Amino acid sequence: MNELVTLVEESATRLFKDFSESDAYDLLESGVFPTQLWKDFLADGWLRTTLAEKDDGAGLGLVGGYVLMRLAGYHSAPLPIMESLLSLHLLSEAGLPITDDLFVPVVLDNEQVGGNVPMTGVPWAHNAAGLVVIFTFNEITHINLIPSKNYTVTTSQNMAGEPRDNVQLNVNPLNGAEQLKDITTSQISSWLALGKSVMTAGALQRVIERTVEYANERSQFGRQIGKFQAVQQQLAVQAEMTSAANCAVDAAINHLGTAQEWELIACAKITTAEAAGYAAKTAHAVHAAIGFTHEYPLQLSTRRLWSWRDEYGNEQEWSTRLGNHVIESNTDGLWPWLTTQTGE
Amino acid sequence: MQRLNFEPVLTGKKEAALRSDVRRFLAAQGAFSPGEVIDSWSVCNPEFSRLIAAEGWLGMTWPKEYGGGGRSYLERYVVIEELLAAGAPVGAHWVADRQSGPLLLRFGTEEQRQYFLPKIVRGECFFAIGMSEANSGSDLASIKTRAERVDGGWLVNGSKIWTSWAHVCQQMITLCRTEAPTKDRHAGLSQFIIDLSHEGVTINPIKNMAGEEHFNEIFFDNVFVPDTRVIGEVNQGWSQVMAELAFERSGPERFLSSYQLLEAAIEILRAKDLQQYSATIIGQFTARLMVLRQMSLSVANQLQQGKLPVNEASVVKDLGTSFEQELPDALRLILSTEARLDAKQGVERLLSDAILKSPSFSLRGGTREILRGIIARGLGLR
To answer: Among A119, A128, A197, A340, which one is least packed by beta carbons within 10 Å?
Structure first.
């Protein structure tokens, strides 16, 4: 994975840096889509990161996609990167046509398939050309690309000002749906959760870097505040949790496509979400009042951390799922199960 | 800011085969005593250590010329995590295998390696750690035990404390002051291998609050140590000790000390109507354990590459000991039972052992505050 990381980081970092120096955040939060940034993103071909070369893709697969998403999280990129990448990946898996339009993936629960139940928290819905709707029907995974004319959107935002809309479908998702072979709905849900986990891991890294830098700059009582043990001890714990989050995400990415994929993703979501709260709280404590301002960029990361830890399942929900899984399905004991989470 | 490195690593077929061997070995041993499975790397059983030695599982990573196994750190990792998870009594050889041998390989003389390493590998020579003193805990550089130059060697006077199993071990690597303290507090310290059967060595047991007598206070009264038993450079002991601690701090023993309780709890929860709250707790701790294991494996792999990941090792130990301390606290709530000091088996006994032994988990090998200070230095704050 290392060479891939270096490759993606080298080429995408400049693009993301341009993002963070633009007025895109204020635009986004006032409801305007950052069109120019999106064009830049498309122009560099990043949308097709995961696709095979025969589909005009970069051939980097889901792994490459997650590497890019982690970087997007690090830079708080104000674009639907995770959503567009995973949509395209699903469309390609289903053999459906690929375009440069923005599509957003949504997994429906059973009630939403049958009835007229609205969807909440659909990211970027009002900016999208359509939704890639995934659901299970008759125990078969289905995929349906529903164009925007067939649903009604009420806009809403998460705490970071990112679009998280409420959507009412005006068509039956079963109409025109196709079967998606060899992928389960639960697996796709976990891919979305992993997307949010890797973005959180990236943001956590950015926050510890900003906070250490600030602690080394800011002086009180005649010395840098980072010289005080009370501050050092908190930052050490924040660094530990950031390390754990990044390690968990690496392990999950390494186990994509293996029998342990879901379990490692569960661990990644739990670990990143737990770290998010501690890191945000500690970073703000160390930054004090300046970090509480809109102007200072710490909030770009911390508001995302607070939002992302809840999206696609918070740490409590994932812990319960993982706990049930461990208790119910491993009659041979925990240890043999734990130690198969490797390449053995 | 320098990033902490936890580059992921995957074990493979070689490790899987070895794992099966260890499981077969453990199955043949039968169940271990329920009163000894919590913190089993503090349970001393020289006979069991010799069984492990016979399997070739001591000094696994050391060169074959010293009797070692010439195997990788990942292979060693697999063996020790299997033994620890099973609650095997590995305390007798633990220090010699984990840190004393590697220290001698790194800094020892050829004669020391040839003399000690094969004995350790055969399970015939156990080492104790001689660092802390009554007035020097976290502030290790303040030690008072001194070694003075005499003809052909050194004369050691002073005392060490909290020396686990010193009354069973044959040797102790002892940190002594060889020059008076100067402005550089870390200068003037040296490491010696002291034969504990030597004249002038007195060992007094100290009973701990969990009822065990594994640690001691040990006194040195004009103990002669020949020049051949100095480790590495005279007055360079501090940097050698820091290197030793990288081996000491990152292994799976830093998060598996109360693991047996988790397994037992899951067995009980499986048999009864599961409350959602219980599943959540099990899920949380499972996730922490899984991630700690990945982190610890990563450090093992870095040691294999010849690196000395001191900061990363401190991260594993701080997170790991929090895990093994918090586990009994969380499980007691969902097991809804009372711990029993004298229970012969069951979670009542495991809870009692885990809770009573847990304060030591985050003290031995460097307290939380010391570890976090090291991490803060790594972050560039000190």
So the answer is: A340
Closest among A326, A188, A86, A298 to B265, alpha carbons compared = A326
Residue A154: pLDDT over 90: yes
Domain boundary among B191, B208, B236: B236
For A:300-329, CB contacts with B below 8 A are 315-316, 318-328
Chain B residues whose CB is inside 8 A of the A242 CB are 4
Asked, for residue B338, whether it belongs to a domain, the answer is: yes
Distance of CA A333 to the CA centre of its chain: 32
Q: Is residue B5 part of a domain?
A: no
B358 & B275 share domain = yes
Cβ-count burial B237-262 (b if 16+ within 10 Å, e if not): bbebbebbbbbbbbbbbbbbbbbbbb
Q: B-chain residues within 8 Å CB-CB of A331?
A: 270
Report the CATH number that the domain containing residue B255 is assigned in CATH.
1.20.140.10
pLDDT of A14 reads 84
pLDDT confidence band for A1 (50 / 70 / 90):
low
> In the predicted model, what is the mean pLDDT of residues A286-315?
97
Q: How far is CA A287 from CA A221, A338, B1, B119, B223, in A?
A: 16, 39, 17, 55, 55
Q: Is residue B2 part of a domain?
A: no
| Structural domain boundaries, residue B329 | 240-379
Residue A24's pLDDT is 86
Per the CB < 8 Å rule, is A319 touching B289? no
- Residues B374 and B251 both lie in one domain: yes
Cross-sheet strand order for the sheet of A151-154: A119-123, A164-169, A151-154
Number of domains in chain B: 3
Residues in chain B with pLDDT values less than 70 = none
Q: Are residues B24 and B112 in the same domain?
A: yes
Pick from A1-15, A87-101, B356-370: least confident: A1-15
- Which residue has tokens 């030695």? B53
Same domain, B208 and B254: no
pTM of the predicted model as reported, rounded to 2 decimal places: 0.96
In 10 A of CB B134, how many CB atoms?
Answer: 12
Q: Could A247 and B289 be called an inter-chain contact, meaning their C-beta atoms sit closer than 8 Å? A: no
Q: Which chain A residues are closer than 8 Å to B266 by Cβ?
A: 326-327, 333-334
Interchain contact, A246 vs B6, CB within 8 Å: yes
Structure-block tokens of residue A157: 């935002």
- Both tokens assigned to B318: 């701080």
A237·B10 Cβ contact <8 A? no
Examine the domain organization and report whether B199 and B251 are in the same domain.
Answer: no
Look at residues B126, B151, B175 and tell me which one is the last residue of a structural domain. B126
The answer to the question of residue B3 being in a domain is: no
- Please, what is the average pLDDT of chain A? 94
Q: Is B248 a residue of the active site?
A: yes
Residue A328 pLDDT > 90: no
Judge if B357 and B247 occupy the same domain. Answer: yes
The domain that contains B111 carries what CATH number? Answer: 1.10.540.10
Chain B: closest CA distance from residue A69 (Å) = 18
The reply to whether B65 and B151 lie within a common domain is no
